[in-house]
Write a structure and sequence with these properties.
Number of strands: 0
Radius of gyration: 26 Å
CATH architecture of the largest domain: Orthogonal Bundle
CATH superfamily of the largest domain: PSPTO4464-like domains
Distance between the termini: 78 Å
Number of helices: 9
CATH topology of the largest domain: Diphtheria Toxin Repressor, domain 2
CATH class of the largest domain: Mainly Alpha
Order of helices and strands: HHHHHHHHH
Largest sheet: none
């Protein structure tokens, strides 16, 4: 029998152990990424589609929505947490905060859309401003919603058209100048 020669590779110690994160810190970071994945899963699918996610993460989220068994969903969430390590969590967290209205910019956009809706209800000439700012805006639909919202206000009906007008204006503002 031949003798096998063992090579010993010297292990170099870290230059400074304080620079290396502790095992507990690494676990906390991984738990935070998994919690971020859970927040993504809690969002409606149409809102998640607006966030720039890696393809593997997007498909894992879609798969998690399909699962109904508790243990399968738990494993899928762990997998999502693993995929989150490869993604940049900062823009994802900002998008989630914006959807929940936690960011100042999202609040400002919301209030701007409300002011635009009120101006439109007061004066129909605001449609010209909207047409200039957003070429893809459907002015006929906006006029119809304005008329319906004013009728609802006069007859004390529920504000369905009023809300729909807000949603349409908010979407136009979010999509920017086209």
């Amino acid at each position: 029998m031949e003798a096998v020669e063992a090579t010993i590779i010297p292990v170099e110690p870290f230059e400074n152990d304080a620079d290396r994160p502790s095992k507990s810190q690494i676990k906390r970071e991984m738990s935070a990424l998994q919690a971020l994945g859970e927040q993504l899963l809690a969002l409606p699918a149409d809102r998640v589609a607006k966030i720039a996610l890696p393809d593997a993460l997007a498909s894992a989220l879609a798969e998690a929505r399909r699962l109904t068994k508790h243990e399968a969903k738990r494993r899928q969430l762990q997998y999502i947490g693993r995929l989150m390590r490869d993604a940049d969590p900062q823009p994802i967290q900002e998008a989630i905060d914006a959807f929940h209205g936690l960011s100042a910019a999202a609040n400002a956009r919301h209030h701007a859309a409300e002011r635009l809706r009120e101006r439109l209800l007061e004066d129909e000439s605001v449609l010209g401003e909207i047409a200039q700012a957003h070429r893809s805006a459907d002015l006929q639909h906006l006029r119809q919603l304005r008329r319906n919202a004013l009728k609802e206000r006069e007859s004390s009906k529920p504000p369905r058209a009023y809300r729909e007008l807000f949603r349409l204006l908010r979407d136009l503002e979010e999509n920017g100048n086209d």
